[in-house]
Amino acid sequence: DAGVTQSPTHLIKTRGQQVTLRCSPKSGHDTVSWYQQALGQGPQFIFQYYEEEERQRGNFPDRFSGHQFPNYSSELNVNALLLGDSALYLCASTEGGNEQYFGPGTRLTVT
Amino acid sequence: AQSVAQPEDQVNVAEGNPLTVKCTYSVSGNPYLFWYVQYPNRGLQFLLKYITGDNLVKGSYGFEAEFNKSQTSFHLKKPSALVSDSALYFCAVRDMRDYKLSFGAGTTVTVRA
User: Is A102's CB within 8 Å of B45's CB?
Assistant: First the structure.
């Protein structure tokens, strides 16, 4: 049973560029959440998608947007990248609203 | 609003000794509580959860945690630590009426042989 998968593993972008990160949830899971983990900090909630709609959003600017597809996979898009967007981006999936299962993350470096 | 505090940045123990990682939380409604572990350059791995019922919950790899409502705490424990338990541990809380998880800053556990 495949767990949560994310792509790419690493990414280097320049300030002002746009980036798309991808996530496939664990089999049987219909809800996907995205988190940003800056170095030395705990993950911060960006948003959650359920039934292809953004169900809840954390304290992140509109530059951060997402999408969920009919097969429950999800994308995170970040526009107008800033140096401060450099972080590990984690995707998590769940079914039934209890524990979330995390993917290995995408390491984004903005130069 | 919900939040988690992990008062210790680091915990150091000898192999075979008991391990405790502290966590306190703040939430408006009833809490759902979780512990996760993170190894270097990896995602978070679920250890255990408290949703309702017994205050002592048992999880993976011999870990357990005790929910204390009056002290708003959810400390992680392991009776006998292993070197392989050395990692970064996160406590997280979710209000039962909410969807987002709020994490603490993490505690680095080092178990020396």
Answer: yes
8-state DSSP, A24: E
Cβ separation A56–B100 shorter than 8 A: yes
**Distance in Å from the first CA to the final CA of chain B:** 41
Q: Which pair of tokens denotes residue B106? A: 């993490």
Q: Determine phi and psi for B62, rounding to 5 degrees.
A: 85, 5
What percentage of residues in chain A have a pLDDT greater than 90? 92
Q: What are the C-alpha distances in Å from A31 to residues A25, A49, A104, B41?
A: 8, 6, 17, 24
Q: Do B98 and B44 contact (CB within 8 A), yes or no?
A: no
Structural tokens at position A47: 């948003």
Q: Residue ranges of the alpha helices (H) in chain A?
A: none
From the list A55, A100, A105, which residue is nearest B101 (CB)? A100
The confidence band for A68, taking pLDDT boundaries of 50, 70 and 90, is very high
